[in-house]
Each structure stands twice: as C-alpha cells, then as structure tokens.
Amino acid sequence: MKYTNLGRSGLKVSRLCLGTMNFGPHTTEKDSFAILDHALDQGLNFIDTADVYGWKIGEGITEKIIGRWLVQGGRRDKIVLATKVYGSMGKGVNDRGLSAYHIIQACDASLKRLKTDHIDLYQMHHVDRSTPWDEIWQAMEVLVQQGKVLYVGSSNFAAIDIVKAQYEAKSRHFMGLVSEQSLYNLNTRAIELELVPACLEYGVGLIPWSPLGGGLLGGVLTSTDTLRRQEDSRKELIQKHLDQIQRYEKYCSELSKPPGQVALAWLLSRPAVTAPIIGPRTMDQLTDALQALEVELSDEDHKCLDEIWPGPGGHAPEAYAW
C-alpha cells in the first residue's frame, strides 16, 4: 500500500479511501465486514462514511455497521475514520445543516453509532450558505478541544467556499480544512478550473468521489453488471458518451489494463489528489480497485486520455482567456 499526507496535515492515509455508501443498502453486513477486513489487511487505512448513509432518516445504518465492525477489537487505532455532517437526520427544522446546534448533536450521534470516542476526519457534507463561518468554526473548535474530532474537512464545496472557510479559520487561529471531497473523474473535470487551484493554494487534500463516473469509466460496455447497465439514467449516459467510451475502452485494452484501474490511476496522478474514494459493493470490486495502485501512466497515456476525455483546459482564467 502507498501512503501520503492528508492535505497539509501530518496525518498519513492510504492512496485509496474505502467508501462505505453501499454498506447496508447494497452490501450485507457480513460482506461489509469481509470487505473492511480485507481492506485493512491490504494496508488501506482510510475509511469514509456519513451519518445519512443507509438512506433512512435518522437511522445511520452504515455508521452502525462500521461501529459493530470496530468493536470486534484491534481495529480502531489502525484506521483513519471519516464521517460527515449536514444531511437530514430527523424531522425537526434543526436536524440538518451546519448550525452549531446540529453539528454538536450530529457528532455525538455519530460517535454513538460508530462506537468510538473520536472521529479522525469530520467533514461538512455540503456548504451551508445560511450559517455564518464563525458559528461553524466555533462548533468545530469545541469538538476538537473535547477530543471528539481531530481534523475537519469539507465535501461538495466550491473554490470560493474553500477560500472563505480558510480565511475565517486563520482569523481564529484554527487549522481549518485539511481535505475536500468533490466529484472528479475523467468525464467530470470542471473542478480543474478553480477548485483544484484553491486546494493547492491552501494545502487542502482532494478526495475525489465517483472516480469511475457512476460506472461509466469501469468498462461499462463489457461489464457483467447488467442491473446497473439497464438503469434508465445509465443507459442515457452511455448513449450520450458512447463514442468516448468505445475509444476509452479500446485504449485501455491496448494498455492491457481494466478501464476502472486506468481511471483510478489517472486520478492518483492528478495535482492535489490525496485519495480517490472507492465504493465496492463486492470483494471482487475491492481487489480490482487495489490493483490500480500499480498502474503507471506515461505522458503519452495522459495525452491520449485528455484527447478522449478533454478537461476544461487547465486552471482559470488561462483555460478560457489569457
């Protein structure tokens, strides 16, 4: 396993992050435990979840699965555990968002479900434009002082949100964000315009989610996962990008590498990227993703991939001006 620092922090995390969104809804608890065990055995120490995963309001199904795995013993100190706050966890008007009220309550609830006394990386699942940053940072400072949270991250932030967050944190002499989770893959590269430069400027580690573009980049034309291929939204997406997918899968075949591994290897080589999130539903998907760590892409490979999946042209404003 390969490791790197989480953003500008001194914390070492594996180059792949194990996403657990499928644990519960699509993957049984027994299979989830097996995936977690194998990931840990392979040195993958970065595990990501969220209070809303499981998608039944207020139940925290996925966090509970991870909690029951953790209490089996000998695991907690071997992993970097990340979860998130923002989504609706009840029917009350204050049961969502990033108010200090909700952040404190949500953190305590996550700790209880995860059966641990601290969260290594507590991430804001989305920007909350109705809550001022001094309130957000005050709540996070309290959690850090209490030892319930070690580091703070964000998810689905724009570049301006990163800038605002870090400006306010610095004024409070608080470390602020160490990471940002964002949608990023070969097919979705808009963040290269402004978010990536902001992450580089502030030392915020980028954690891409949906690295395979919802399966689009995982060998969808030859996949045996007929259920996902037959989804109406998936069929429309495949049809929209059919020419690119055909060219991409042909190029991966010439490299003698599975498309999913190439997509992950490409992300691992991108500026600011700490660890793409892999979200396996099965053990086979996990073992396949782990092999991406051994894939090396040449400059020529990058050029060819850019031709198939062109990005926005680099950073703003040079990407569209001069």
Supply the key terms.
single chain; 322 residues; alpha/beta; TIM Barrel; 8-stranded parallel beta sheet; two-stranded antiparallel ribbon; 10 strands
Please explain how this structure is put together:
Helix 5 runs parallel beside helix 6 (195-202). The strands form two sheets. This protein has an eight-stranded parallel sheet, covered by helices on one side. Strands 1-2 form a two-stranded antiparallel ribbon. It is 39% helix and 14% strand. Helix 1 links the parallel strand 3 and strand 4. The model has no long low-confidence stretch (mean pLDDT 96). The chain has 322 residues and is an alpha/beta fold. It has helices at 29-41, 61-70, 100-114, 133-145, 159-171, 195-202, 226-229, 232-240, 242-255, 259-268, 283-290, 299-308; strands at 3-5, 12-14, 17-19, 46-48, 80-85, 119-124, 149-155, 177-183, 205-209, 277-278. The chain has one domain (3-308): TIM Barrel, CATH 3.20.20.
Quickly give the CATH architecture: Alpha-Beta Barrel
**Order of secondary-structure elements:** EEEHEHEHEHEHEHEHHHHEHH
Termini separation (Å)? Answer: 41 Å
How is the main sheet built? 8 strands, parallel
Specify the helix fraction band.
25-40%
- The CATH topology turns out to be TIM Barrel
The DSSP helix count reads 12
Tally of strands: 10
Could you say which overall geometry the principal axes of the C-alpha atoms support?
globular
